[in-house]
User: Fold WD repeat domain 75 from Cynoglossus semilaevis.
Amino acid sequence: MVGHGEIRVVHRGGSKLHFRAPTISADSCFLACASGDCVKVFSTSTEECIHHLRGHTDLVTGTLLRPSNHLQLYSCSLDGTIRLWDFTDGILIKTFVVNLPIYSMVASAKHEGVVFVVTPTHGDKRSGLFQLVAVQLPPSPQQQGEVLDLSAVIDDVSSNPAATAFGREGEFIASVKGSRLEVYFFRKEKSFRFSLKENNEKNKKNTFTCVACHPKDDCIVVFNLMMTLLLLLFILRRNLNQKKEYTYLTLHWHHAAVSSLCFTPQGTNLLSGGVESVLVQWRYKQENQKDFLPRLGGAITHISVSPDGVLFCTSHSDNKITVIKNNVKVSAVIQGLVKGERVRTDLLVDPRSKVLVLNGRPGHLQFYSLQRDKLLYNLDIVQQEFIHEDGLQQFEVVHAAFNSSGNWLATVEERQQKSADVELHLKLWAFQEQTQSSWFFWQFHPDWAPHEAQVTALSFCPSADHQTTMLVSTSKDGHFKAWAAGSDTEGPSWSCDFVGTYHGLVPERCCFSADGSLLAVSFQKVVTLWNPNSWELVTTLSQPPGTIRHLCFGRLSCSKYLLGTTSENLLCCWNLLTCTLEWSTAVETTLLLDDPRSENVAAFSFQEGNTDLFVFKPNEPRPLFSHKAVCSGRVARAVFAPREELLEACEESSQWLNLSQLYFLTPHMDLMTFTTKVEEERLMASSKPLVINDSVAETPFSLLLGKHRRQHENEERVLSGSVEASAPPQGSSAVRELLQTPAHVLPSTSFLCSMFVQSLLVSVTDSRSKNKPVEEEMASDNEEEDSEEEMEPSSRSERAPPPTDSTAAATAVAAPALTKAELRELKRVRRLDLSWLSGVCS
Assistant:
């Protein structure tokens, strides 16, 4: 058995974008939000993810702009650190170690160098008690430093970030918890509490849910669960410290709990939102005037406003962030993996686009890109408006399946009424090859149901010629039906080709062999094999006691085997050639699936509260790979996704990942996968941030003006006195960095044009001015040389015979040209007085 030393379980996608309120940049061009253990930076105009700020080792619990520098961003995490980022370039500037888990964070420009964090009281997470602590960030030049200056501000607070807010430009901070509102004034370092009765007249909980403070005025806004139609507006008076007096105003609109409140930067408007999925904009001191933006999707969980007040952002429970202009119109939608309460369909991979398909919004299927970690689009299956009302039974997509080419998608939607039979629809969706962008569905007559009871399984026949398309569905009505595709004058059509039963038993599962020659249908404790061409019952397979839960055929060299799991915690393997039980083992298997590109089969087993993974081949007695406790709880959905590029792994432990990658959903709806150590290191190397000096973020602007100038100065020093002009550095690294940088990161073209042109020009005047004294020196040397030559006796020329043409040519070829520095040195030597040598020699 091979262990998991070289293979790791990593979080691949689907992190919550709505876990905390997003942070908008000062120019409203970027949006940063916590997503798992990293921070994602999006463009508010293109909706694309620009950077993944990685560095935290635990869940990120908050982000906010640095008050003294709006180009930098703070992030806090449960790992006990606060990190400072240059979010426009994705560079980590500094790490502050607090050594306490941080659940939320707020800051104010009035308190420079201080952030206020919510941490567990005495550092104990299990106590459930939290305190608001002021953290003095040390101005150290080092990239990592430990925070030593901590002081408690409010002892008992809520860990919810919506329960704490600054007021009146940082003069006080308000916090709500339960039925208590506490306000702390920094100038006098005193706090005052306002409490409500625990229960109202209708015996309902009297609890505050969120708070917001006016940025300019003495005003606190809270929402109280006791008055589900009211917003309480507290207007603090200046004599609050003496008489504790206040006036209040109630506002009506919301019929359920409000999750978030937020003022605009100038305090002219108040924004509120909750489960109604409607953004309400109240006019401050003109509360009768309201603006509404309805049908935003899931329930609103957080509201944010940009520092310039141009953009609003709402986070939603369906893992979505909506970017809204200040005229209350939607400008962009950033959608993550939609996480519902459960996934009724299996995890599917679209054969055409290789994207993940599963349940999304109510009544929809979402197409999610695994490579880009982005939702591509939602396919509306139910075609009905979803009504947000508790207890209302609505249609749900419960089954989905693709054919082998990806041209057809089958879906089953059902609605279970309390006092009526189940209502279900079977739809066949054809992909439009002409447009390459839309699906057209074909549905049976609404008055005719494909089955009389709930559908239990769907499976397409993997036809090799792709000419005939067949779908098999099983139902609790005791029948399985085969549906064949045809065509008529109006286009493609489907009809029932065969109806099968077996001794009145209920079919639970069905699957086709890899070549489509056999169909396996499980009827409770019996597995039946059918010939799809003639619909003859080929044979039945006996097995140990228990109802069949899963079925799958072996592939390639293991195509003669059929695997299944039972309710009695048995994993069985039948040999189809001998029609006997090949082997069986006692293991509680919650999920069984085969890799469509290899012989490998994955089995997830639940033991002692955790899920284990076993990867094996049906013809080998030992597993290829095993991993204990891949996650806590039961894994109910998983899929093998084919790789775009084959993984060339030589280790035996990771060869099963060469062709496909295994993804699975945890009980908390997190999408996980298995990756090798080499693959993870390659990914980290590709996303490794730039190395910077002096903790200063290096931007394309500095690359253009700084690095290029330094390079130009170095060239001038090397050439020193050369007047020869060099070619413009068109292939320099600065130009390449500029051209490869996204346009939305660069300054305006008019601002860059003059500096960019100047950087490409060669300074000729400087070189001429430097060479001028050298030329003058050379001229004076020449004059001295001529005078010396005139004073020498003519016998020198007599002693030296005139060179011939051949010797002169040889000398010209052999003697290299002297540089100007060498010429000057030679002339200096010639001017030396060497007459004393004659006396020594005599």
Remarks:
- The two ends are 97 Å apart (CA to CA).
- The domain at 390-401+455-683 is CATH 2.130.10.10 (Methylamine Dehydrogenase; Chain H).
